[in-house]
Amino acid sequence: MHHHIDHLKASRTTARILSLLLFTLWGTFFVEHLSWFSTEALDTPPLIVWLAQATHFLLLVGYLVSLKWERIGSVLIVANAVLFFGYAAGTNAVPFIVVSVFPVMIYAYCWMKHHHVTRIV
To answer: For residues 21 and 117, what is the distance between their CA atoms, to the nearest angstrom?
Structure first.
């Protein structure tokens, strides 16, 4: 008995699950940072920290958007992962960015395979 596996569908599902997992991981840090900021009575963080927090928020939005609109979500993920981790992660920026954009790499694989399949047919 032969079972056909749709590799593009499986890859897209994997990218979506990974997006949800990364949303949960980075979302936890986002909430933690916000709660940390709110406990500092009169010492509110400087504007640059709030701008970094905004890019962190947009990274999270990108993960959720990618569940429905892969390309728009992917642009949000890549742009904001680079901006946020480039600023906030120091020497860990590159590995954090790579991990963060992994769903985008899977989506891109699907786009290339889908384009290749539709051109051949």
So the answer is: 29
C-alpha dihedral over 71, 26, 100, 22, to 10 degrees? -70
The pair of structure tokens assigned to 114 is 């889908």
Burial group, residue 107, by CB count within 10 angstroms (0-12, 13-18, 19+): buried
- Output the pTM of the full model: 0.87
Encoded amino acid at 105, one letter: M
Inter-residue contact 18 to 102 (CB < 8 Å): yes
The sign of the dihedral angle between the CA atoms of 67, 72, 75, 81 is negative
**The pLDDT of residue 98 is above 90:** yes
